[in-house]
Specification:
This protein is α+β, with helices and mostly antiparallel strands and about 350 residues long. The chain contains nine helices and 20 strands. Helix content is about 25%, strand content about 35%.
């Protein structure tokens, strides 16, 4: 089911939580709404679901105008961060709840409900837990119950609000990979909210980055990471280094070096160069950016180097590869660094 959002916005007590936005989500896509707290991503999800009324604009599901329809009438499957399971009901009855609560004329026969629920429990790999209560389940198992319950009503779209936010790191990784497989099997149009950049980049077909109630980039994960549209996106998605300088004569000047611009849209004047820690290299000749090693850290099989540049307030962080470890510099040592990939943005005025 396609979702089309046209000029939809939302204000609370006169404050804009979501500026009027346009967004098209093709049928069958898995889309991440990614952004910091207060960026408007959860507000947008709830507007799509019908849990909040829009202040203006239109929401279409396929050929149907869903703007004024309730969540029930939109037939949306919604999964909350904290599961919202009924504690007194078994796993089976939690999943069956949406089917049993339908109006009598639309309610499936009992045999149909039982088969559908059993099939869903098999699909989400918790059939053996059908008679347990939520309190007897792990966090990951409860989230699978919540997903099965959302899918039981044959939803037009599946919406997930921070679906893995209450889980520990290891379970999050396992469950998001499972959700990707489940999505590929069901083909449901799915939109999920997250503030976890790694989660969005690994799981989604498209990442919609939001900030201050607006969409600041909408693209496939690889381009969002490798071609950020703004300083905010570069800094928010993954780790970044920043070097303050200025642009003139088609070059970026800072810290005793100059380097060509990577695009033509940066005007003359103050600017900041952004790069990833893995895009810095130790210069064998000692040329390039001249820096002083502050610290070398080893953590979980990864080695990072922190170095100071003259005239810069922020130190640079560099991920060292295996070939660098043969000549690992020490704290206090002077080194040269080269930039492999970077992007220059004009300073905010």
């Amino acid at each position: 089911m396609d979702i089309l959002i046209e000029g939809v916005g939302k204000r609370f007590d006169g404050v804009a939580a979501l500026s009027p936005i346009d967004l098209a989500i093709p049928s069958g896509q898995l889309v991440a709404l990614l952004g910091p707290s207060g960026s408007g991503k959860t507000t947008l999800l709830r507007l799509i679901a019908g849990l909040l009324p829009v202040d203006g604009g239109r929401i279409r599901f396929g050929d149907n105008d869903a703007t004024r329809l309730s969540l029930r009438d939109r037939r949306v499957g919604f999964v909350f961060q904290h599961y919202a399971l009924f504690p007194h009901m078994s796993v089976f009855e939690n999943v069956a709840f949406g089917l049993r609560s339908q109006p009598r004329r639309q309610r499936p026969a009992e045999a149909t409900i039982r088969k559908k629920v059993d099939d869903l429990l098999e699909l989400v790999q918790i059939a053996a837990l059908r008679d347990r209560l939520p309190a007897q389940l792990s966090g990951g198992q409860r989230q699978r119950v919540a997903l099965a319950r959302a899918m039981a009503i044959d939803p037009t779209v599946l919406l997930l609000d921070e679906p893995f936010g209450a889980l520990d790191a290891k379970v999050r990784i396992e469950l998001r990979r499972w959700l990707r497989t489940l999505h590929d099997e069901t083909g449901l149009t799915t939109v999920f909210v997250t503030h976890d950049q790694e989660e969005a980049l690994e799981l989604a077909d498209r990442v919609v980055v939001m900030n201050q109630g607006a969409i600041v980039q909408d693209d496939v994960p690889e381009r969002v990471y490798s071609h950020p549209a703004s300083p905010f996106v570069f800094d928010f998605i993954g780790r970044s280094n920043q070097i303050e300088g200025e642009v003139r004569d088609g070059l970026f000047f800072a810290a005793g070096m100059s380097t060509p611009l990577t695009s033509d849209d940066c005007p003359v004047g103050p600017a900041t160069l952004y790069s990833r820690p893995h895009d810095l290299r130790l210069s064998e000749s000692g040329k390039g950016l001249q820096a002083k090693v502050l610290e070398v850290r080893r953590l979980a099989g990864r080695v990072t180097l922190e170095a100071a540049l003259a005239g810069q307030t922020r130190p640079l962080v560099m991920d060292l590869s295996s070939h660098d470890l043969l000549a690992l510099p020490a704290a206090g040592e002077r080194i040269g660094l080269s930039l492999q990939h970077y992007r220059v943005f004009a300073a905010a005025r």
